[in-house]
Amino acid sequence: GAGVSQTPSNKVTEKGKYVELRCDPISGHTALYWYRQSLGQGPEFLIYFQGTGAADDSGLPNDRFFAVRPEGSVSTLKIQRTERGDSAVYLCASSRSGGSPTQYFGPGTRLLVL
Amino acid sequence: AQTVTQSQPEMSVQEAETVTLSCTYDTSENNYYLFWYKQPPSRQMILVIRQEAYKQQNATENRFSVNFQKAAKSFSLKISDSQLGDTAMYFCALYNAGNNRKLIWGLGTSLAVNP
Known about the structure:
The structure holds two protein chains of two kinds. Chain A is mostly beta strands.
């Protein structure tokens, strides 16, 4: 595709529910990143995929957060038992390869947990 | 520890004038890159400019240029001939080209371009 796409654009859920956020990277990009941006903050790294495998998941805050990229393209970020503190914008980015420093971002998913 | 600091939470500039946004960083790596990204209200994080640490020459992209001072670990962004469309949050980010390939971000500077 022309750019990184993310769905949904906005998601409202209730505390304790499960949510899935989807990211479709730029075609041919092998590296994919998830970041979380809280209000008034810069993005914070969550996880980085090189191909199908998670090369670095050190930013995932706890075991309620999980991400997959089964075919090395689309990725899904999964959040179990959502909490109000999970409310944020979730940004996805891709780069040509793991060694390419420039990351191109999607429009983000705004998650609101009531 | 790797850190990025943007000490100006908000700035404003008149249309057609020049403004400089500040950024300092800290890293122990030798091979790294620095970026400025722009985030308008639409939330889309847009790449403005990139600087390779091994290059002495400052990067330029049309009206955007940087002043990269490696010894001082300073990386400021200059916007010339400011336009209303430049109004946005601007983030400075650091990328280390070793094993740790995530971007480390500053808190951002909110820039308002006034007509």
